[in-house]
Amino acid sequence: MTKTYATGRRKTSIAKVWLTPGTGKITVNGLSLDAWLGGLEAKKLRVTQPLSLTKQDTSVDINATTTGGGFSGQSDALRHGISRALCTFNPEFRPVLKPYGMLTRDSRIVERKKPGLRKARRSPQFSKR
Q1: Phi-psi region of 29 (alpha: psi -120 to 50; beta: other; left: phi over 0)
Q2: Given this model, what pLDDT does residue 1 score?
Q3: How many structural domains are present in the chain?
Q4: Which stretches of 11-122 are assigned E, i.e. beta strand?
């Protein structure tokens, strides 16, 4: 029984993913995927996308912990971690996942706020009088 580990990141979120041969059960922070993401069906599909592309939906179990950010960043970090774990688990999955950008870390993060501005680039409201 081989256990594969990988880390996925997105925005300020980090997902630690352990992949083991099994029946297709996904556990995130001690909850099932449905309990963790609730009614966010689009995010559930994004998380399971690497599994469906490699046809591993029912042959591997995933146990993951996520920290930082919100559901969007955490689900994308989980997707990245699952993709990396699958490539370590079986190197033949790399050419399948690479064209879809699953192995690329999305480096877009929130820009810092600048002094004298309301946000990173938003200037204060102009008052004529």
Answers
A1: left
A2: 56
A3: 1
A4: 13-21, 26-28, 31-32, 60-67
CB atoms under 10 Å from CB of 27, counted, come to 16
Question: What band does 39 get if pLDDT is binned at 50, 70 and 90?
Answer: confident
Strands 4-10 and 31-32: unpaired
- Whether 107 is covered by a domain: the verdict is no
Q: What is the pTM of this model?
A: 0.90
Whole-angstrom Cα distance, residue 124 to residue 38?
A: 38
Domain that holds residue 61: 4-100
Give the pLDDT confidence of 69-81 residue by residue, as tens digits. 999 999 999 999 9
Q: Which of 1, 68, 66 is nearest to 30 (CA)?
A: 66
In whole angstroms, what is the distance from residue 15 CA to residue 34 CA? 17
Query: What amino acid is encoded at 38 in this protein?
Result: G
The enclosing domain of 12 has a CATH number of 3.30.230.10
Angle between helices 71-89 and 41-53 (to 10 degrees): 10
